[in-house]
Amino acid sequence: MKIEYKVDFNKIQEVAKMRQIDLNNYSKDEIIRKATENKKSIEKEWNEKEEELINILNEILPGLDNNYIIKIYIFPKEVPVGACNCETKEILFGYKKEYKYFNLVTICHEITHILIYKYRKRNIISRITDETIAFLVAECEIRKRLTGEKYFSNFFSGELSDLHYKAVYTASENLTIWNDYLQDKEKNIKKLLQNIEKNVSKIEKEKYKEVKLRDFLN
Ligand SMILES: [Zn+2]
Fold first, then answer.
1. What is the torsional sign of CA 144, 150, 152, 156?
2. What global pTM score does this model have?
């Protein structure tokens, strides 16, 4: 896995439009400058911990194909976003920092979506299980290892989307399965996913099937 940080004005404009954020008070150069400053500090933060984070991801989710480049497009704080396109392996990121290591935890959340995408693509898991795993890996386990914070203690002060709220609930309901998995030396990811997926109702699976990028913006 190789991570590349980028700034793309068109992507910023696209998300701003989608979220109805008015950028008319800023020139293109200003927006690019703000995003580039943000990119510099996030990239630096990431580089200092990259090896550790990739090792943790590989330890929790071993054996997955990660022989690719993930491009992370950094946004200015005026256009907050946290989303990923698993097909193109692109992440859009630019939230305000909620706690120490928040940026790294949230980027790991998006990377997890990309790592386990093949299971969602093959319909082995629904969006709820996908979101639940990203939450368990990043906001729960990785955050705990970086900050010592317990699972579920204040991880986001904004309003969670329906799907994310559901994922947090599903995570809390499946902690025994998750903890057993973490303890298990032979981590069978597919089995973990299937065990959680079994506990998601059919109605919920259908409900979030068509969730699009705008639903992930929060
Ligand atoms: Zn997510």
1. negative
2. 0.93
